Amino acid sequence: MRAYKLLSQWLCLVPLLIGCAATTTIDEFRPTNQPIFIAENEKVVLLGRRDSGHYETDREFISCVTNKVNSADINVVPEQIFIDAIYPWFEPRTAPKGLPRLKRLMQDPTVREKVENLRIRYLVWLDGSTETLSQGGSMSCAIGPGGGGCFGFAQWDKLSTYEATVWDLKDLIEKGRLRVDSEGTSYLIGAVAPIPLLTPVKSDACSSLGNQLKTFFVVN
User: Does residue 164 come out as left (phi exceeding 0), alpha (psi in the -120 to 50 range) or beta?
Assistant: First the structure.
C-alpha cells in the first residue's frame, strides 16, 4: 500500500515535469538573402550591450553564446580581450550604440589599426535579459521536536528575450539580426523537502541563439 501511495504521488508530478520544458521561438532578419562570408583568418567578437551604471547584459549568457559559436571554423575573440585591446572605445560610456557612431569611430586610425591587428571582421551585439513575469502559490517550512519539513506549492513564469545584431567592421553595414524568446514555468513543491522543477529558459535561449548565429557565417 505504501509503495502504491508513493507511486501515485510521483504520477501526480508528471504533468508538472512536462510543463517544465521551455517554449522557444527564433526570428531572423537579413537585409539580403546572401550568407555572411568570413575568411579563415578573420574573427568574430560578441559583446553585451551595456549602459554605464544602470544596465548590463548578462555576462554569463554572453559567455554561453560565445562558446556555442566558437568552433574550428569560426574563431571568436573573447569579449574582455577585445574591450581591453580597444580601450576605452568600447567601455559602456563610449561604445557605439548604432552604425553612424560606429562609422565615425572606425575612421579613427588607431581604432581601425587595433581592429585589423586582431583580425576582427564582424562584431555581434547581444542585448536582452531574463525576467520573472508572474508567480503564485505559497510555501511554508517548520521545524519541530519530531523533525521538520516544507509544505505547499509555488510556481513562477520566466521569459528570456535576447537579440543579436551583426555588424561588418570592414564594410560598416548591418548584416543581420536574430531574436530569441524562451518562456516557461518553474515549480517548487513542498513535500517534506522542497522539490524544485526549474525550466531552463536562459539555457534554451543560449543554445538556440548560439546555434542559429553560427549558421549565419559561411567560411570561405
Answer: beta
pLDDT at 201 over 60: yes
What angle is formed at CA 193 by the lines to CA 188 and CA 195, rounded to 5 degrees? 30
Q: How confident is the model at residue 54 (pLDDT cuts 50, 70, 90)?
A: low
Neighbours of 191 (CB within 10 A): 13
Of 153, 155, 157, the C-alpha closest to 132 is 157
Give CA–CA dist 52/44, Å, rounded: 24
Cβ partners under 8 Å of residue 64, min gap 6? 203, 206, 210
Residue 26 class from Cβ within 10 Å (0-12 exposed, 13-18 middle, 19+ buried)? middle
Query: What is d(CA 165, CA 144) in angstroms, rounded to the nearest whole number?
Result: 56
Predicted TM-score (pTM) of this structure: 0.77
Q: How many CA atoms lie within 13 A of 157 on its CB side?
A: 7
